[in-house]
Design a protein that fits this description.
With 405 residues, this protein is mainly alpha-helical. It contains 16 helices and eight strands. It has three domains: 84 residues, Erythroid Transcription Factor GATA-1, Chain A (2-Layer Sandwich); 28 residues; 243 residues, Retinoid X Receptor. One of its GO terms (biological process) is mRNA transcription by RNA polymerase II.
Length: 405
């Protein structure tokens, strides 16, 4: 509750103790008819008896007398004032404009302080200080708002725990991938040999190396999905569609987060470290550039296992995959992952500006990689290089996987 002074003396003490900027905010001169809460409803100006608007230069005055006093001091006008009636004029709201000398004398008599009137330079300095303080308060409020961003609820923490454990359990080599990786020999994949569609070429030896790790990599993605209760509750047909849609995207993400800037390699399935050229000539073509670029970009994000896991869950639960039946249910699951993800980002407090929207853009990049890969290997299938993504073997693999489990 705001303190209200019982006397002019108490009011003077109260206002003098107040911060100058608080005072300015309390009684803005631009607000016509504004009466501060410390004034009585019918309080009058001590100079002319008009309706008072506030405490100005240590006295309760109206706006007119406040402005008159300020102009007189700032422009040093009082020596020019002259009374026609020997300085004995009665000053009220009717006569106040008839005698400037008597009005000014009354201002001084009632206690208006000349030392509180600022000259131009001091007024500009004060205005600058006020603006700086306002900007400081604005920044502080903004920081408070940022600091109040919601963090995960208990229910969301449980969801985050499930997703993280699913990822850790199915992520080859875990945090020891650098120690356990093997570099693909430099002479493999450096010179494309066999002609491929659209003028591209493929190094069959590199291609052969990659195909050896495809089935284990797919198995890990499927195992990740099967560890999520909300995924397992979906119809089997929807599960297969979701996996076929996200498999390349998740494998690309798992490779991208294992980009090593020192050797300029990606580690596939936690086993083989390959260069950009080797991945490109091994069958991925232009898709390899997108995966390497993503890896270079993500290296500055410093993602932990939970963030990678939640990215995978968001990719998995994409309700726009063609042929899905439980669209609304899948969309609701993805929204739950996204909300928990955003709250976890708030909890992590990354120091990258606009971290959350930038990270969401990586989902778009991964979707583009998946679409580009699918388009490319539709052509490769005609060329008799049956890559896992569109091959009947991949479909059979998923069908058999769900049948036996």
């Amino acid at each position: 509750m705001e303190q209200k002074p019982d006397s002019v003396h108490e009011m003077v003490t109260l206002v003098e103790k107040s911060n100058e900027n608080d005072y300015l905010l309390l009684i803005p001169s631009s607000m016509s008819g504004y009466i501060p809460s410390y004034l009585d409803k019918d309080e009058l100006c001590v100079v002319c008896g008009d309706k008072a608007t506030g405490y100005h230069y240590r006295c309760i005055t109206c706006e007119g007398c406040k402005g008159f006093f300020r102009r007189t001091i700032q422009k040093n006008l009082h020596p020019t004032y002259s009374c026609k009636y020997e300085g004995k004029c009665v000053i009220d709201k009717v006569t106040r404009n008839q005698c400037q000398e008597c009005r000014f004398k009354k201002c001084i008599y009632v206690g208006m302080a000349t030392d509180l009137v600022l000259d131009d330079s001091k007024r500009l300095a004060k205005r600058k200080l006020i603006e700086e303080n306002r900007e400081k308060r604005r920044r502080e409020e903004l920081q408070k708002t940022v600091g109040m961003k919601p963090e995960p609820t208990d229910e969301e923490w449980e969801l985050i725990k499930i997703v993280t454990e699913a990822h850790v359990a199915t992520n080859a080599q875990g945090s020891h991938w650098k120690q356990k990786r093997k570099f693909l020999p430099e002479d493999i994949g450096q010179a494309p040999i066999v002609n491929a569609p659209e003028g591209g070429k493929v190094d069959l030896e590199a291609f052969s190396q990659f195909t050896k790790i495809i089935t284990p990599a797919i198995t890990r993605v499927v195992d990740f999905a099967k560890k999520l209760p909300m995924f397992c509750e979906l119809p089997c047909e929807d599960q297969i569609i979701l996996l076929k849609g996200c498999c390349m995207e998740i494998m690309s993400l798992r490779a991208a987060v294992r980009y090593d800037p020192e050797s300029e390699t990606l580690t596939l399935n936690g086993e083989i470290a390959v260069t950009r050229g080797q991945l490109k000539n091994g069958g991925l073509g232009v898709v390899s550039d997108a995966i390497f670029d993503l890896g270079m970009s993500l290296s500055s994000f410093n993602l932990d296992d939970t963030e990678v896991a939640l990215l995978q869950a968001v990719l998995l639960m994409s309700s726009d995959r063609p042929g899905l039946v439980s669209v609304e249910r899948i969309e609701k699951c993805q929204e739950g992952f996204l909300l928990a993800f955003e709250h976890y980002i708030n909890y992590r407090k990354h120091h990258i500006a606009h971290f959350w929207p930038k990270l969401l853009m990586k989902v778009t990049d991964l979707r583009m990689i998946g679409a580009c890969h699918a388009s490319r290997f539709l052509h490769m299938k005609v060329f008799k290089l049956h890559w896992f993504y569109v091959s009947t073997e991949f479909s059979n693999f998923l069908t058999m996987y769900f049948t036996v489990r």
